[in-house]
Amino acid sequence: MANKISTAKIIRNFERLSTFTNQVKISLINTIFSKDISNIFDSMTYLPQIISAYSFSSKDRFLTYVKIDTQSDPKSTTSPSTEKQKDLAILLVKEFHELGIFNAHTNEFGYVYARLESNVSEEVPAICFCAHVDTSPDCTGMGVKPIIHENYQGADLVLPDDPSVIIRLNEHPDLQEQLGNDIITASGLTLLGADNKAGVAEIMDAVAFWQKNPEVKHGPISIVFTPDEEVGRGTDHIELNKIDAVYGYTLDGEKRGHLENETFSADGFTIKIKGVSQHPGFAKGRMESALKIAAEIVSKLPKLLLSPETTEKMEGFIHPVDMQGQVEEAQIDFILRDFDTLKLIEYGNLLKEITFKVLKNYPNSSADFIQTEQYRNMNEILKDHPICISLAMEAMKLAGLTPETTSIRGGTDGSRLTFMGLPCPNIFAGEHAFHSKEEWVSVQDMQKATETMLYLAELYTLRGIR
Ligand SMILES: [Zn+2]
Questions:
Q1: Is 134 a catalytic residue?
Q2: What is the DSSP letter of 78?
Q3: Are 194 and 440 in contact (CB under 8 A)?
Q4: 195, 205, 229, 260: the active-site residue
Q5: What is the mean pLDDT of each run of 10 residues along the chain (466 residues)?
Q6: Is the C or the N end of the chain the one with fewer CB within 10 Å?
Q7: DSSP alpha helices (H): ranges in 4-45?
Q8: What are the residues whose beta carbon lies below 5 Å from ligand 1 (ion)?
Q9: What is the DSSP letter of 169?
Q10: Catalytic-residue membership of 329
Q11: From ligand 1's centre to the CA of 76, what distance in Å?
């Protein structure tokens, strides 16, 4: 083929990689893959055979992990926010050691790091797989009793410890695609913890696969398990130099085949109102209550548009999350969200406009505005790294799935990692009904997520480009 590049050239390029910056490594990979990506697949016939003979361990690992309470706590000021998250971290390190990965370790912040060394002679860029060990503060994770509903046939899943918790097909349309599969749920009193212990189990299973099948070639693979993702602090103490990878992938998504490459862009917005305080008995014509001004501003917010309760998909919103004050001073805190970062400026301007309109009736009062960046749509960075997305999509195809890129109406650890210099989209983990007693995951989806990682690592080893 005319556009084929020689192995010698690739090896020459990669021999120099260790001295290059990540930026240069990334552009090198882009160049190499975009020249001849189709050939990679020709030599991948042996991997499906090995996978089909493998007995997946993700189910058993998952059943163990969910019984360990790792709920994080937004009110805590420590890192990790709860000590109990370390119980799972310690177990994971032990499991890595049992699998022969002796560099695996945890630290005082509750992170787990491990690295599989490359088993090919060419230098292959490192990739990272990431999941979080904590579960949501929204629903208890203490005493989780996982139940396996084998060969699901569409009937309501009534959870035995609280029969009022029922997982119905019509309320969980993704169950339609799970007929014949084995569904794992909690027992009705707790969440399940599939978010994100499904991801942890899937990654550990992939590691077990590579360790048990050393003939399967792969480059360096970093694994990191983070605490406190659910309280927005999963990357606070992360050490990117330890991860030392060109691309990362969180395994923390919902439906099989989905790859999330977009998150909201997010700002905080505060309006500080100064009113005029007077003794209420003598206030006529003089008092201007900051509380009433604040209430008027909130009442004038758009209702049918731009509210969380009236928007979906790619629509953004302005959302008041806190309001407090007295006659003299009041404050309203908002969150602004949109996939288009520029819209956040518009939303801030709209809030200013509303405020000034209200203040027209309060001539001696004033307002200050503070707009602060919270996080940004990771696609702003990922769009410049198409290979990071396209290889994950190809890997899902190789695992027999129909891949689709989707967006998250929120932020992820991956969006923060992306802006810290590790482009990091989110691969499905099969988690459904997050943060609730109705949470479920299927055994078969967990296996497909593991398979996706196996193919993805294979694609990165550049096999077949000769
Ligand atoms: Zn999660």
A1: yes
A2: S
A3: yes
A4: 229
A5: 41 43 55 50 68 96 98 96 98 98 98 95 90 96 98 97 97 96 98 98 98 92 97 94 96 96 95 96 96 98 94 95 96 97 98 98 98 94 93 92 94 90 97 96 98 94 48
A6: N
A7: 7-15, 22-35, 39-42
A8: 195-196, 252
A9: T
A10: no
A11: 19
